[in-house]
Amino acid sequence: MSKSDFLIDISMKGLNRLFNYDYLVIQKIGKIKTICFIVDKSFVIGITLFFNSMGSLLVKHIHTLVTMDEQRREIQDGALLVHANVIQQVGTTAELDSLETDEILDLQNRYIVLPGLINTHHHFYQTLTRAVPAAQDCDLFNWLQTLYPMWANLTSDAIYASAQMAAAELMLSGCTTSSDHLYVFPNDCTLDDEIRGVQDIGLRFHASRGSMSVGESQGGLPPDSLVEAEADILKDSQRLI
Ligand SMILES: [Zn+2]
Measured in angstroms, how far is the CA atom of residue 180 from the centroid of ligand 1? Predict the structure, then answer.
């Protein structure tokens, strides 16, 4: 590891214990940002690789390259060619080593590389109210009714911050693609806020515009301040499409 590597062992202790990693290392190699989980200080079991460039990158000497392709190939001493943010080719290091690329990342046969995980269900904005004591150990409806009044105070900035926090957490655990279901739009909140938040971090993202139109006064669960008129929902959905 070079001097520019930094360990966030202390602040991430809880996470490390949870996953049984000795170290969580965030490493920057040229333009390439990688997040690696290391066990027993010498062997890396996972790497989240973010390469954001229109150029080309050869990752070589991968201890085991897990392709998840139709044949479920696991390639020893593997190599991976990325061009313009798309994986173009996988094979052994011997097969791909002669390719001309802008950047090379030599993993010295110490890493297992696998496709990024995909998260198909999330509500990023709820990241902000995860540790509210009154909402702990509740059933679903009590949990919702405790938090709805807080969510009614959400702002554009809060949606932006929650999206960045949720995206960072996902990336730290190996997730490179996520969807999100945002369905509360009080005050100045828009779906654009979370799209901006995630774009600034770099996670691959599928946003979705949910909605609620039946509030307490009509027999619904959420307070009226958290629901929208159907005409407004349709209009904003059309704008986003
Ligand atoms: Zn849900």
Answer: 9
Q: State how far the Cα of 74 lies from the Cα of 58, in Å rounded to an integer.
A: 18
Q: Find out whether 215 and 228 touch, Cβ atoms under 8 Å.
A: no
How far, in Å, is the centroid of ligand 1 from the Cα of 123? Answer: 6
Distance 230 CA to ligand 1 centre (A): 21
Distances (CA, A) of 196 to 160, 163, 205: 7, 9, 11
**What sign for the dihedral angle of Cα 159, 164, 165, 171?**
positive
Provide the 3-class DSSP secondary structure of residue 30: coil
Q: Answer for the pair 58, 81: CB distance below 8 angstroms, yes or no.
A: yes
66 within 8 A of 115, measured Cβ to Cβ: yes
Q: Which two tokens stand for residue 115?
A: 């496709």
Residue of higher predicted confidence among 235 and 65: 235
Helices 156-172 and 191-201: crossing angle in degrees, nearest 10, is 40
User: What tens digit of pLDDT does each residue of 66-124 get?
Assistant: 888 889 899 999 998 888 777 889 999 999 999 999 888 888 887 777 777 788 999 99
> Of 48, 16, 20, which is closest to residue 35 (Cα–Cα)?
48
Q: What is the DSSP letter of 156?
A: H
Cα 141 from Cα 222, distance rounded (Å):
10
Whole-number Å distance between alpha carbons of 197 and 189: 13
At 138-164, the pLDDT tens digits run: 999 999 999 999 999 999 999 999 999
